[in-house]
Amino acid sequence: MSKRVIIVGGGVGGTIIANLLAKKMRPEIRKGELIIDVISDKAEHFYQPGLLYMLFGLKQYEELVRDERGLLDPMVELHLNPAVGIDKDKNEVRLKNGVVMKYDILVIATGSKPAPEMIPGLKEGGHWFYELDACLKLRNELMNFKGGKIVLTIGMPHKCPVAPLEVTYMLDDWFRQRGIRDKVDYTYTYPIAKLHGIDSVAQFASKTFPKRGIKSEIFFNMKEVDPNKKTVTSIEGTTLKYDLLISVPPHKGANVIEDSGLGQGGFIPTDKFTLKMKDSKNIYVVGDTTNLPISKAGSTAHFESDVIVENIASELRDGLTPFRYDGKVFCFIETGLTKATYVMFNYETPPNPVAPSALIHWLKLTYNKVYWLTPMGIL
To answer: Rounded to two decimals, what is the model's pTM?
Structure first.
C-alpha cells in the first residue's frame, strides 16, 4: 500500500521539501509506493523578500512571481485548495472543497502574514511593505514625500527580522539621492531594550545610526495609532508624532493552525532539533510556522527543509530519523542602496556582521535573480 506525504503550504519551505523529497524518493514514487501532495491556496509562488526592492522601484511584480506548478517536480501532486482543518489524531487534512486527505507523514509549511488589525488604528494610519498591495501603496507615499517626520514601528513576532533595519538604511540613502535627507526626521523604534533582537546586529545599528542621523526609541511596543492626530503610542506610554508611519505589523500564522488546535497565533510548538511538532511522531513543521526563537526567514526554512527531507526519507526507508537541525540561519542585510553585510549563525555560534561592501550587495542582488533555483531544490 502506498505511503502518502502531504505538505500543507506552497511557499519556499513547502516547495523545497516537495522537490527534494521527490528527487530523493524517485524509485519509490515510480513503483507507486509513495505519493507526495502539496496543498496550496495560491497558484502563484511569490518571492516576498523582493518587496523590499519593489518599494524603491528596483523590482517589478513580474520578476517576483512564478507558477507554482512549474516550480514543482512533475511527480508531485498539487492541490490548489486551502486546508481548513488538520486532525492529527486521525491523520487527516480537510480541504475547503470538502475533500479529506489521509497522510502517513504531514509537513506543515503554512507560513505567517502581517496582522495590522491587532494594533488599533494601524491599518488606517500606517503603511507596511510586507504585502504586495501595501508595498505599492507605501511606494506611492514615498514618491510624493517632500519631508517631515517618519516613524518606523515594529510588532512582534514578524518575519524577515532584519528587514526593518534594511528599509531604514535604504531609505536613508534614497532620501540622500533625492537631496531631501536634511528635511527628513527619521525615528526607528524597537520593542525591547536594544535596536535588534540579535546582540551583534543591535550593536552594528547603534554604531551606524548616529553617523547617519537616524534617531531611535527602544522599549516601544505599539499600543495604538491615531490616524487623525497622526500619533503612535506605545504600551510603555511614549507617544510619537509622524507625517508618515512605516510599520512592520505583528504577524500571525495561518488560521488553519489555530482552528485545528495545533498552536496559538498560528505557530506550532516544535522540537528545535527534530523539527517535529511536539507530542507528534509524524508531523514536521518548517519555516515561519514553528514557534522556535530563530529568524523567521527564507534561509531558515531552506536549511530546515534539508533536515526534514533527510529524516522523512530515512523514516520511510529504515524507520529512523537520525538527522538534526543545528539552527543554521543566513541573512543578507542591505545597509543602503549600494552596500550590504550578512549574518550567519546557529544554535551554538552567535552571528557577527562583517564590514558592509558593494560585493555583498551585488551577491544579494544576484541571489534575488537566481532565487527560483532554491524552491526547485537546485540551489
So the answer is: 0.94
